[in-house]
Amino acid sequence: MSAPRDSMISVPSDAPSDRPLLLANVSRRTFLAGVGALGGLVLAVGFPAALRAADPPKYGRDGMPDGWVDDPLAFVAIGEDGTVTIVCHRSEMGQGVRTGMPMIVADELEADWKRVRVAQAPGDQKRFGNQDTDGSRSTRHFFEPMRRCGAAARAMLETAAAARWNVPVGEVEAQNHEVLHRPSGRRVGYGALAKDAAKLPVPPRETLRLKDPSRFRYIGKGELKLIDAPNIASGKAQYGIDTRLPGMLYAVVARPPVYGGKVAKYDAAQALKVPGVVRVVEIEQSPPPAEFNPLGGVAVIGRNTWAAIKGREALKIEWADGPNREYDSAAFKETLEASARKPGKVVRNEGDVDAAMASAARRLDAEYYVPHLAHVTMEPPAATARIVNGKCEAWGCIQSPQAARDRIAKRLGMSVENVKVNVTLLGGGFGRKSKPDFMIEAAVLSKAMAGAPVKVTWTREDDLHNSYYHTVSVEHLEAGLDAQGKPVAWLHRTVAPTIISTFNPEAKNEAPFELGMTAINIPFVIPNVRIENPEATAHTRIGWFRSVSNIPHAFAVQSFVAELAAAAGRDPKDFLLDLIGPARRIDPRTLGDTWNHGEDPEQYPVDTGRMRRVVETAAREAGWGKALPKGRGQGVAVAYSFVTYVAAVVEAAVDEKGELAIPRVDIAVDCGAQINPDRVRAQLEGACVMGVSLATKEEISYKAGRVVQDNYHAYEVARISAAPREIRVHLIPGDFNAPLGGVGEPGVPPIAPALCNAIFAATGKRIRRLPIRDQLKV
Amino acid sequence: MVTLHVNGKAQQVDVPPDTPLLWVLRDVIGLTGTKFGCGMALCGACTVHLDGRPTRACITPISAAAQAKVTTIEAIGGDQVGKAVQAAWVDLGVPQCGYCQAGQIMSATALLQQTPKPTDADIDAAMSGNICRCGTYTRIRAAIHRVAQKGATK
Lengths: 778, 154
Ligand code: FES
Ligand code: FES
Hints:
With 778 residues, chain A is of the alpha+beta class. Chain A contains 21 helices and 29 strands.
């Protein structure tokens, strides 16, 4: 089945809302005006708000800002030519959401995918529901609303057909872009019905008939190609960096190299002499906390990007570095270690760890270090804005278009209604593009240029020097084993600057959402458990990075489990399974986890049966325990994150010089039912490569408050030669009527520990500090 | 004024001759399929063909490209091998975010034009200059092998 080629159609946010709902006569071009006219938005907002008010506390999609919308009038348009246009309101950054989300609607709608087009929603959460594309939650939060969208539109088409034939609606049935009258065999196409259907009321939610999953055409099949793939392969796909507008100017910005610093003085004279440079503009500094604000600095605006880059090189700037000017990552590692060796805030406490340690037959301890990381999305942050008649329109590769819209409005002193944020494709997101600082920069610069369109491009150096970094952490673990090698006591001190510090500089403890990422919520069968969280101070912008705190926590916990297995003389996989214990469903609150990835603890307990199953599946598929040549070994790790269970078995090969190769990785994933299995596989493959990359190469370090790494030569990421040669993803089947798990992030956390456990099996060398780099060299 | 020959068309551009080809393609000519990723020949996102050779446009001044035939991702489908590579990329679902893939396709096409049946070592050598942060490497390798096999059975 071939995918429609048309892709990025923008939906205006300011179109009149009094037009018919399912649109007649929508050609591809007029769609731009068309979908904006899908009224019903006001109406749509009413539902979830009312529901939520009656139903506290709010979990999952209900708990997200602006919740969810399942109104077909907001998401579906049908033209008289039969073209079905489906709005995707989540940002596409490689997870396949622009294929997956519309596919759900199309399936329930009985639409023929060949006649489906996808339009990208602008930032407008009142109209579309929550658009923050993060937390691995697009599918798990919107599978059901999108099904209802499609089912409601299908019901309207069926009703229109029945009315036309003057037959009971029970005798008609939508089938692959037509409605069939079963007794007579008559058929009528969706295009011919569009006008009539548009006049009908949207059927009440409780009357909708959802398909039985056995009748899904697309969902769960994995047969549809990525809707954007043809455009990507031919260079037509439009990313944030690709926006072009008439009269557009190009900007790059010199930002303070130290977090919290600002311009002391600058001299633009030389910059202005560079051919093609038009203007030099200072952007006002936003003092910490950074929140989503631009860092400030000096912008050079030119006729093309290169002129702006050359102009910036010619700027003379003196920076006032501020209080973080001494930040030094080597010294900070020692600070974190010192904190990790002293008691800290107790965040979970069961039994009596101290007494159990005292009477244990053996005691072990270990410390693990994971440095700051940067997302280095292949497309650096980039955004364009223009201001016409007091209204600002912006384009960008943004994961959070509503936040961008709100912040631009605030910064420019406009009402939110006068700001429109268009979402392009994202050349990678990984959490970096959840922060709209770069979009605000574009708006500020357009304003400085009297509303002219200005595109801000971050160079790779900018991206590395001024990111929102993954935190840095020391994880201190201690355990006591009894005479049989069974763990009887577990102490984990996790120390890392919190993401909250980016919003509140006083914050020094990990937030519940950070602790709830594989630190506090370990479901191990150990009678005495204490988790502590000593304080740490942030000296840079800390932000979300794909799978967030799961990275250091899972690295430490799953490495330490393997260390305990080795000390106990046990097989690491069997030891891990014994620690997980028998299959049971644990209320996360009993583990001290009040967050639970924002999901209902009743719906989403910690299910040790599912955790066991992914470990057993990955081990079986990998041929766990098979004879391997010298220098090769297998390692296993499991992580429960974003309410999904992922286990990985990595095979590592280390040669006599200490060169590492990864011939094969087996990954088992239980995320519930898979809507688009091929994209689930792709996400797990990609997460595996990212996990290998951060484990082996990646590190952001600081000297004198400044990031040391400039570009990919210094901030290395895995290339094809270093990537695992084979990645085999094993999907655990799920039930489409049961709660879904996340997919984008949960593949990352088990990779680093599984790899280091494999290296231990291959060489006897235990890696406790990432990245591995030359630690294996002999 | 420098005259460039891009995708079979002569283009006059009025920028300093040391301007990198990348920014002239993207900002001046308007061919945005060629991507910026590093500006230092480290990532391969900007890969174009100069007289059929894969070249990093970000470090190639237009003065050095003026004598050559420049082919970008927008026109690589006009080449048999390029077309087969694009088809394999779609078929095997190689792209994730897709941003690096123009460069990957340009490098893979050049490899397959030179070496119709590349070994894994050939692929490592030819493709290691192209970073994919989404981690699509196993599928890139599979897609290159797919094109090589199909070519052989033709
Ligand atoms: S942009 Fe040219 S190699 Fe990275
Ligand atoms: S597909 Fe996203 S960087 Fe390669």
